[in-house]
Specification:
- Keywords: Hydrolase, Nuclease, Signal.
- This is Ribonuclease N.
- It comes from Streptomyces kanamyceticus.
- By secondary structure, this protein is α+β, with helices and mostly antiparallel strands.
- The chain has a domain of 87 residues: Nuclear Transport Factor 2, Chain: A, CATH 3.10.450.30.
- The protein is 26% helix and 18% strand.
- Strands 1-6-5-4-3-2 form a six-stranded mixed beta sheet, with helices on one face.
- It starts with a helix and ends with a strand.
Length: 136
């Protein structure tokens, strides 16, 4: 009986493994990998759909869309891109906005950076990495 069961179980296990590996090879968490449908400025970098951002980041995006008011004095100031994680542009091209981090007493590590060309980037690690924010 075990001799008949083992090949079937092994086959089922291999199929499950293949499905798991195929599902995980898409570049990571759903909505976070660059895709062919991404705008040119976002190609080659991680992406995130605006609706999948943390609630606080979505609130910051609404404030940006509305032109303020902003809760932090540094919101809307020039982002200099010293880390060179974003494409190089002339000074003043990028502007940064704080994304509130629950439990933090200061500005925390989360930001949204916008570009003059309509680009929107999100970082949750104080500029060490960015995701291009995709809006529908």
């Amino acid at each position: 009986m075990i001799a008949r069961f083992f090949p079937r179980a092994l086959g089922a296990l291999l199929i499950c493994f293949a499905v798991l590996v195929t599902g995980c090879s898409s570049g990571g968490e759903a909505g976070t990998s660059a895709s062919a449908s991404a705008p040119a400025w976002a190609r080659g970098m991680a992406t995130v759909e605006a609706g999948r951002l943390p609630d606080e980041a979505r609130r910051t995006l609404r404030r940006i869309d509305d032109g303020g008011p902003y809760p932090y004095a540094k919101d809307g100031t020039v982002f200099s891109n010293f880390e060179r994680e974003l494409p190089q542009r002339k000074r003043g091209y990028y502007h940064e906005y704080t994304v509130r981090t629950p439990g933090e007493r200061d500005r925390g590590a989360r930001r949204i950076v916008t570009g003059e060309g309509g680009e929107i980037y999100y970082t949750d690690d104080h500029y060490a990495s960015f995701k291009a924010v995709l809006r529908q």
